[in-house]
């Protein structure tokens, strides 16, 4: 168990991390998600021991790894690291990359040459590079290079793997494939993983738990499904799942949008923080578009984008602009159409609210 306790980090007078608290359980797969500059890499560097905190402590089980007074250096920690840029050495073969950390890492192979070769073979097989052991980086594709970086990181059997945007240099198809490879590695090595990304789809797909960061602060920590269906802050609601933030009034579990008080929406699992601020975060696929003569709010379609599996509509509703995703089999609308809008899965209700 790794515990980040009230950790802040300043670069000169700029505070990159503000009093972060985080626990990484044994074998847990955590994604750190946030926009550029929110402090993801800073957090990773602190976890690795490349620098120390300005305030707070980082501990593993009962041992303090880093405080303002002392920082255990990376080579004395049982960690593996994978970077966006692969960071391979041009003069070393694939097998030599895997062998290298086994000679200095705290978890290095202490037995003989045979055991060392067995470990190298096992790791190369795990990442599917056993046939390419003697190749140099210049003779490998992007995906193969990233596999070498992964193999090098897991070779000493670290109990914590730190990954900084490891897939962002790869094309879309390869990224999808490598996501599965990383999930497989996680299953087989049982190491805890901290995976930094700015891609919400990647974080949702791969992690047990997502830490959403914004401007050096943690906005929410939750499993992917909870984060997506029940965001707790405006930032999380819009960054993960691109929610429309509809303004209105909450009365118990009923919501009356300001834009059209004839409509009443039921609470489909909105966090309490939105209820106090008079907002209903509605994901694009939670809305339903209907013909203008149906009940519901009225809006005008301003953009239509065909996406293959669904259609993305931009709809002007009074002063607001909403994004609405509909299935390709639903009724089609064109730019300029007047449409009715309601909330899917909600009991259809209009009229006066009975106050509770
Ligand atoms: P990206 O996704 O673009 O890599 P990030 O979320 O990883 O961003 P960090 O690299 O952790 O962000 O940087 C957080 C903030 O700290 C940024 O505003 C950055 O400019 C600043 N920063 C990072 N390193 C330093 C440094 N050595 N000196 C001064 N400021 C720094």
TrEMBL record:
User: Record's InterPro entries?
Assistant: AAA+_ATPase (IPR003593), ABC_SmlMolc_Importer (IPR050093), ABC_transporter-like_ATP-bd (IPR003439), ABC_transporter-like_CS (IPR017871), Mo/tungstate-bd_C_term_dom (IPR008995), P-loop_NTPase (IPR027417), Transp-assoc_OB_typ2 (IPR013611)
Q: Where is the ABC transporter domain?
A: 2-240
Q: State the UniProt keywords alphabetically.
A: ATP-binding, Nucleotide-binding, Transport
Is Nucleotide-binding tagged as a keyword? yes
Which PROSITE patterns does this chain map to?
A: ABC_TRANSPORTER_1, ABC_TRANSPORTER_2
Q: Which Gene3D superfamilies match?
A: P-loop containing nucleotide triphosphate hydrolases
The cross-references to Pfam families, in alphabetical order and at most eight, read: ABC_tran, TOBE_2
Any idea what this protein is called? Transporter
What species is this protein from?
Planococcus faecalis
